[in-house]
Amino acid sequence: MSVLRKTLVVAVAIIAAGALMIVSFLAFSTWKSNVHQSNLAAFYATPEDFSQIPGTLLRWEPLGVDVADAKAYRLLYVTEDQQGKPAVAAGMAFIPDKEPDTPRPMVAYLEGTTGQGDACAPSRSPDPLHRVQNFLPEAMAQGWAVVAPDEYGVGTQGVQLYLIKEQEVRDTVNSIRALRSLPDALTGNDFAVYGYSQGGHSALWTGHLSKQFAPELDLVGVAAVAPAADLASIIDRQWDSVVGWGIGADVTRSWSIAYPDLPVDPFLTDAARDNFERIAESCTFGSFIEGTVRHDIFRQDFFADNPAENPMWAQALMEQTPPPYSAAVPIMLVQGTADQIVLAGPNANLQESWCAAGSTINALWLEGVDHINVAALAGPAVTGWIVDRFAGLTAPNTCSVPPPWSLITVE
């Protein structure tokens, strides 16, 4: 056998062994995940005759993880669907061990895009603290009660209405109500919201609609980190990128329900049309991996054309884009200049337009920080800002400082 042939045989053997290892790892991971989800299924099942009162706590149990000086719970509670009918949603709650001298303030932590499958629900994850670990220790030290809703249809019966304002706000305020029902919660009425990415969209709309859906609760401030806020700008800039695959399936599935007359199908490629239901059930990491392969290797787009240029889509996107706040509702806006998913340019425009409308904004721009890392780096600053909101201090306003346009790598 020639040296060249021996080399080729060895190379093929190495590649085959590597492929076998990857397949074996993925198969083991899938089996392990299936076992984990099967063990949780009974908790998340919709009760036959459950309360019709939004915010009712239906079930709770230990989350099964250690949080320093605190207890962690898995929750099942009553929310409402798009028609305002009672439905079931789940989430996590964290309560400090130390009893408070006064009623505890509450924080709703609103996660970014997860994917719509049951296994994508943060509270069903084998590592449920992954998304809150840069915020939770200080929140517990401050004595706050924290709730992190999964959202209706994620981990529970139903289909998530992704980036649909009423559903997001209903899920947020009803999770707060459920949190208050825990025996050791000992909460008052004051709460803040802290949202990241899609959760930032939820947080911004909670600032507008919380009193409509939960008049008994008092919102003290809204923190939005890399919020998916200006939806038309996001779609316009990202429709033919990998991001189209990463979130397009969730948008397609959800908005077809929320807007039955919206022309969705004509804007999908054949590849998207054949796969969006399956991809929507995937979790976000998997969606972006598949999207990267399809877009970068096979040159497949998710959208056949730009939906933002269609009048019906443009109207729907405008309806789901939060308008500026009054000066009475303070907001902290955090954005990385190198974000490739929720691009910095639209949120720089948001800062300028909201400031011009009289909003009270404390903007924090993180130079060179991308979408993944902004969540971790924002935690301490956001926590400090929320501390001051609960203390009743005057909210800072940085509207005199313009966005750092020269540092923004993608507008």
TrEMBL record:
InterPro entries: AB_hydrolase_fold, Lipase_secreted. One of its GO terms (biological process) is lipid catabolic process. The keyword Glycosyltransferase does not apply. The chain crosses the membrane at residues 7-31. Keywords: Membrane, Transmembrane, Transmembrane helix. The keyword Transmembrane applies. Pfam families: LIP. SUPFAM superfamilies: alpha/beta-Hydrolases. GO terms for molecular function: triacylglycerol lipase activity. This is Unannotated protein.
